[in-house]
Every structure is written in structure tokens, then in C-alpha cells.
């Protein structure tokens, strides 16, 4: 293979998952992840992140579509895929009477070419808890044990389902550092998380899921670029909105006022901010409580969540406006 060529180790095409009761949790997801890349799956609660991860991990067969992990079907060709991947599920579940060391040894017994137990515990910062029974570990320590087990077989692809949930700030930083090191060594990582700063810190690319579909995807910079920046300030005493330069002409997309506070959203932050600050200087007034912030991943996420809330307000008969698959789901709902 050409050195510049992207080796796609995760390929997902039009993936679908329908649960027993007929609920469509994954509704046509297409994505690919290159070797050595860190891809983050974000989404509102119930968006379908875990349902998607489980299909990629080969824990269940898809209802429709295609998954290839390292060129294999992870469900049909489990024996070929399993030794090359590491999986950290959302909820581990170990025999609670075993000690940390015994748990790792037990797991190592089922893993080809396992790391030494001490090394695995060292990696996740659990070496000092080696002799402690699993039931005595804190929630965060159990997450770290989960991670140690996922790393035991030196996987080529690491699936991490909410790896830092329940960790304190130091534990989270430590996990981020470890994930960065693994990536630097060439490990491909697929991560789900509710911490947007985690995705912003770690991800090369990401997708935000909503109701089983990818609502937006790209690099963190691409995803945030589509969102407006925000600016807010207090109107000086004796001044009104109409005294400001015409906001539309400054690139302002929309604005609202509460009392004397003006909040606006703009795609041209520099132009808007410069014009308003120059106006304040010319007018010899101070824009108090001035706050200017560029768009963030949080903004993109909240935008999607807001749209989701508005959608929830619709009746099934209204149906989503422009999506055939979603109309089918709404139709099912209406029929139920
Ligand atoms: N076994 C199941 N049977 C029926 N529905 C299920 C099942 N498992 C999950 N679901 C539903 O599928 C949808 C997606 O769930 P999933 O756990 O994949 O979402 P998620 O994005 O991982 O959510 P969270 O962020 O809350 O962990 C939810 O509406 C959930 O209730």
C-alpha cells in the first residue's frame, strides 16, 4: 500500500439495528476510520452510540448494512477479529470476590499475547490496588480495571464506550494521556463520550448522532465552524438597541435582549465585535459585562439537542420533514 494511502480499518455502510420490539435504534450510519485515527461518537442520550458500538464489536449482527473491521465481518468472523481488538464496555461486570490481580490474570488466560499483569495495571494507574477485591474498588477504579482488560492484548483497534465516566479530574487526564500514547503508537481508537471537551481534546474526527443517524461529522474544527459565535454585553444607560450600528449589516444572524443585556450570534465574529467596540469608543461608552466567545463543540451539540427537543414537540402524524427512513419510523409509531 502507498504510504499516503488511508488504510480504513473500520468501514461501516448504511448500518441499521432494530431491536426485538421493532424499535429502530440505528438508522443508516455510514462512516470509516483510518488506522491510527481517533474517532469519537457523540450524541444525546439514546442516540444510538452503544447500539452502534456493539455492532462494530461483533456482539450482535446488524439488521441491515455492512460492517468491516480490519477487513472482516466482526460478527460472522469473530475468531479473526476478536484477538486484534480491545473492548471496554459501558458496564464491565467482574466477579466481585476476585482481587484486581486475579481478575487481570483470569482475563489474560483468554487473551493471546497478553501484557504482563503488572504492566497492564501500571498503565491505568491501578498497581497500588493489585491485592484489593473488585467489590472494594470505587466506580472510577472499576472503569480503570475495565480499561486495563481492554488493553491486555495490545489491540490494533480499541473500542472505548464512555471510558472516563465516573473518573475524577485527575483520573480523566490520566486516561486522556494514556489514550494519546496508544494513538501515538498507532492504535486506532473508537470512543463514545458525553464529555465534549474529551472529544475536542482527543478526536481526529467525530460524529454527533441523533436518533440513530449521523447529524453532523468531521474534524472538531469542521463541526464547530458551522456554528455561530456568541457575543453579549449590557447596553449603556440611556441607549437603546436602535442606537447601535445596524446589526444585520455587521453579520449578526440573530439577537435577543433581556433588560439591558444584548445577546447576539454571528458567523463573522471579528467584524461584529470590531464594529460594536468602535461604536462604543466613538460614543464614549463602556460595554459592560462584555463576553465574546467563538463557537465550540458544545455549541454544535446543543444546536442538535435543541432541534431534537423541537422535533419531540411534533406529533407522529407530522413526521420528520425530509427523511424517508424517519418517516417510516414515525409511521410505525403512528400505527402502534
Ligand atoms: N435491548 C434493547 N431493546 C430495545 N431498545 C433498546 C435496547 N437497547 C437500547 N435500546 C434503545 O435504543 C436506543 C439507543 O440506545 P443506545 O444505548 O444505543 O443509546 P446511547 O446513544 O448509547 O445512549 P446513552 O448516551 O444514554 O448511553 C434507545 O432509545 C434505547 O432505549
TrEMBL record:
<dbReference type="GO" id="GO:0005524">
    <property type="term" value="F:ATP binding"/>
</dbReference>
<feature type="compositionally biased region" description="Low complexity">
    <location>
        <begin position="326"/>
        <end position="336"/>
    </location>
</feature>
<feature type="domain" description="ABC transporter">
    <location>
        <begin position="10"/>
        <end position="236"/>
    </location>
</feature>
<dbReference type="InterPro" id="IPR027417">
    <property type="entry name" value="P-loop_NTPase"/>
</dbReference>
<protein>
    <submittedName>
        <fullName>ABC transporter ATP-binding protein</fullName>
    </submittedName>
</protein>
<dbReference type="InterPro" id="IPR003593">
    <property type="entry name" value="AAA+_ATPase"/>
</dbReference>
<keyword id="KW-0067">ATP-binding</keyword>
<dbReference type="Pfam" id="PF00005">
    <property type="entry name" value="ABC_tran"/>
</dbReference>
<dbReference type="InterPro" id="IPR017871">
    <property type="entry name" value="ABC_transporter-like_CS"/>
</dbReference>
<feature type="region of interest" description="Disordered">
    <location>
        <begin position="307"/>
        <end position="336"/>
    </location>
</feature>
<keyword id="KW-0813">Transport</keyword>
<keyword id="KW-0547">Nucleotide-binding</keyword>
<feature type="compositionally biased region" description="Basic and acidic residues">
    <location>
        <begin position="307"/>
        <end position="325"/>
    </location>
</feature>
<dbReference type="InterPro" id="IPR003439">
    <property type="entry name" value="ABC_transporter-like_ATP-bd"/>
</dbReference>
<keyword id="KW-0046">Antibiotic resistance</keyword>
<dbReference type="InterPro" id="IPR050763">
    <property type="entry name" value="ABC_transporter_ATP-binding"/>
</dbReference>
